[in-house]
């Protein structure tokens, strides 16, 4: 057994990544303040170009958030009343709310217990004549199993909108997230792998027609000025946000490598301590370039909340993504999903726990997390023996 320091560990500390860039960031702010141009301009174009390059797509279009990226994507493929869109239930709310906001029906399907991503067989079972699209989410930084999903999409003539909010830079069989479906949707929310200083989003596509339509819809459907061709929305990426993200983007690959290194270190420590029997380590699929937005373990046997409380007592930050699956949310009650309708999703909601994985995390901090878990499980084992 190794000697574990007992030190507090935050779930996420974005200031550690931003601090070394402080001068560059403030310079960018000063430049924008002095320029007087706060919407559009070369900073936005530069970021769009960089993201398109990173994702290997022809087009990238900035917008106000990841949620808006999803909404605009569905608007562009003309989703509306009477349409059904297949989505996972084990995801953030925005993956499904975009469907409802357009008057269409989200159809929730189950996920894989191993990867937490869409179960292809469940998707096929959910397809009806009204199905127009599916939104695979690349959850926690790992791509969904896209090959069978793209095959289904082709057979049933469905659009595939990738929710890449947690997976910028991830790959599936060598292909970047956001380049495989009709449209990819990204978020620059501060907790994402490329986190901004407020809200921001990006949409990727290889389809020139869709790119043009998305640009139109994101600016009130207005073209030329004050002539409205479609009922669009106002969703733009601020120039200031783009300028700050341009400073951060060149470091993304390095930060991703650190997240990957942290994931490897955790797995090694957990195995050394034989804790891989008490908690189930995240599964990395074959040929998957995982970017570890979250390091999410499973703690089965109804122990998760108790373990989480013990970690909190030891000042170790964790989070449950997500405690209530979308098909069981109050706002979707009218869709009529009963308890037990998506068993894997419901099970995951009671078992998952995300541990600190951010790039600036130190080896000492990871040792502290593993040491705390070792103590927690040892005391649980002792209590069980005492009771027997
Ligand atoms: C963060 C997130 C979104 C929404 O992005 P915002 O920029 O916060 O609007 C959508 N889907 C998933 C899976 C997310 O994690």
Question: Which features does this protein show?
Answer:
12 strands, binds pyridoxal-5'-phosphate, 40% helix, three-stranded antiparallel β-sheet, Aspartate Aminotransferase, domain 2, Aspartate Aminotransferase, domain 1, seven-stranded mixed β-sheet, alpha/beta, single chain, 2 domains, 388 residues
Spatial arrangement of strands, main beta sheet: 1-9-8-5-4-2-3
Q: State the distance separating the first and last CA atoms.
A: 26 Å
Helix content: 25-40%
Number of strands: 12
Low-confidence stretches: none
Describe this structure in words.
- The protein is 40% helix and 12% strand.
- The model has no long low-confidence stretch (mean pLDDT 96).
- It is α/β, with parallel strands linked by helices.
- It is globular and about 75 Å long.
- The chain has a seven-stranded mixed sheet, with helices on both faces. It has a three-stranded antiparallel sheet with strand order 7-6-10, with no helix packed on it.
- The longest helix is centred in the C-terminal third of the chain and has 25 residues.
- It has 13 helices and twelve strands.
- The protein folds into two domains: 235 residues, Aspartate Aminotransferase, domain 2, CATH 3.40.640; 136 residues, Aspartate Aminotransferase, domain 1 (Alpha-Beta Complex), CATH 3.90.1150.10.
- Pyridoxal-5'-phosphate (PLP) binds next to helix 4 and helix 5.
